[in-house]
Amino acid sequence: YFASSPTCASTLNESEIITVLALPSATISGNATICSGSTSNVSFNGTANATVTYTINGSANQTVTLDGTGNASVTTAALTANATYNLVSITSAGAPACTQTITGSITITVLPLPTATISGNATICSGTNTSISFNGTPNAMIAYSINGGANQTILLDGTGNASVNSGTLTATTVYALLGITLTSSPFCNAVLNNSITITVENAPVISFTPNTTFGCAPLLVTFTNTTSNANNCVWNFGDGGTANGCGIVNHTYTTAGCYDVTLTSESANGCVSSLTMPNLICVEAMPIASFEPTPAVISVSHPISTMINNSSNAVSYNWNFGDGSNSTLINPEHTFNINETENYTITLIASSQSGCKDTAKVTITVEEELIYYIPNTFTPDGDKFNQTFQPVFSMGIDPFHFNMLIFNRWGEIIFESNDAKIGWDGTYGGKIVEDGVYTWKINFKLKTNDDHKMIVGHVNVLR
């Protein structure tokens, strides 16, 4: 049909159908968290047979073709850092190949592998214990072994710390870390090879010897330390005395009794040990020698004295009386052989059971008695006998204070002597006196004191 003239008209019977295809689409999914060094699958889902374009951390475009069910997946490399997969576009298969921009992404979070360290004392003393410390990723489980034995585990706390006590150790011990595992998904784990060696040091084996273990007070004892590798040695002698020194030490015991001796020493690393030897040193009290002679003054007429023994801590006695005589009795009685006017020093040696000795000395006084003889007749006739008149003093007289006078019947002094050893020869004026009775008077001083004596008598002169 035409609108202008001439007007022609006809009927049209032709048409065309235009097919509009739906645009392809896709989504992306995968694991949200993995362990460092692990791989993961990234899944794509969308229009069957379409090609999906994507990037990894904004890198160059990569593609993956969906299968007939609209699925595809790729495996990541071993990741050590987070990775973000972003959808870029999708193109359908066949003609027309429809393409559209799509959005969607996943981020794979990569967790670092757990780590741990172990620490503790490098050296301890035998018979003691120590603490083993573990430090690492909080809340992780550590596997470890002791001297290569069965696996043991310990859980780190929220601060990443844990410890165990070694118990009493007597030999070197190795604590080795084997592995560590997170206790929550994705349960990352790592192999560990850290270790510590705890060296167990023996304390010194104490030994010492004394040069003697028994004796009399005061007793000097020399102690010799025979301990190997001894340091900082301290001695306790049991009587309150102490000393420092790792060699030879001396100590004097002054009081009777038995004493424990202890030596304490330490190793170079401070391991301390000690040895106590009970009742090692026994000290005997010294005997005390003491006696009293009764009487303490003797004389020719009374030469006997008894020794009163007052000694203590003694079991045997040895007496020397000073006159050549001896005795072993406890309380001996002794008769002194007095032949001169001298005193005697008595010595007592008192001995204990073990031979400890003490000595006491006492001087006993000899009192000189006045002993004399004065004849009543002498014969100055020129023969060899009885020619002089003189007193005979055995003892008791002071020879420096002597005077003898001879008187005739008229009281006239006819002889005088100041020496007891010089007597009257019966003469006067150079001639022998007539027979008869003559008077004598003697003055003298006693030797033991200042007393003066005077004696008077008569003597007959016969020719």
Architecture overview:
This protein is mainly β and 463 residues long. Helices cover 0% and strands 51% of the residues. The chain contains no helices and 43 strands. The strands form eleven sheets. Strands 2, 4, 5, 7, 8 and 9 form a six-stranded mixed sheet that branches. Strands 11, 13, 14, 16, 17 and 18 form a six-stranded mixed sheet that branches. A hairpin with a 5-residue loop joins strand 4 (51-56) and strand 5 (62-65). The radius of gyration is 67 Å and the shape is rod-shaped. The protein starts with 25 loop residues before the first strand and ends with a strand. The relative contact order is 0.07.
Key features?
single chain; 463 residues; mainly beta; six-stranded mixed β-sheet
End-to-end Cα distance: 238 Å
Task: Provide mean pLDDT, rounded.
Answer: 91
Please estimate the helix content. Answer: under 10%
Rg measurement, Å:
67 Å
Q: Major sheet: size, sense and barrel closure?
A: 6 strands, mixed
Count of alpha and pi helical runs: 0
Strand content: over 45%
Q: Based on CA inertia axes, which overall geometry fits?
A: rod-shaped
Going by helix content, strand content and strand pairing, the class is mainly beta
Indicate the low-confidence ranges by residue numbers. Answer: none
Number of strands: 43
Summarize the structure in short.
The chain has no helices and 43 strands. By secondary structure, it is mostly beta strands.
Q: How does the SSE layout of this entry go?
A:
Layout: E1 26-30, E2 33-35, E3 41-46, E4 51-56, E5 62-65, E6 71-75, E7 83-91, E8 99-101, E9 105-111, E10 116-119, E11 123-125, E12 131-136, E13 141-146, E14 152-155, E15 161-165, E16 173-181, E17 189-191, E18 195-201, E19 208-210, E20 214-216, E21 219-225, E22 231-236, E23 242-244, E24 248-253, E25 257-266, E26 272-284, E27 291-294, E28 297-299, E29 304-309, E30 316-320, E31 326-327, E32 333-335, E33 344-351, E34 357-367, E35 371-373, E36 377-378, E37 392-395, E38 397-407, E39 413-417, E40 427-428, E41 431-432, E42 436-446, E43 452-461
Parallel strand pairs: 2-9, 11-18, 20-26, 28-34, 36-43
Antiparallel strand pairs: 1-3, 3-6, 4-5, 4-7, 7-8, 7-9, 10-12, 12-15, 13-14, 13-16, 16-17, 16-18, 19-21, 21-24, 22-23, 22-25, 25-26, 27-29, 29-32, 30-31, 30-33, 33-34, 35-37, 38-39, 38-42, 40-41, 42-43
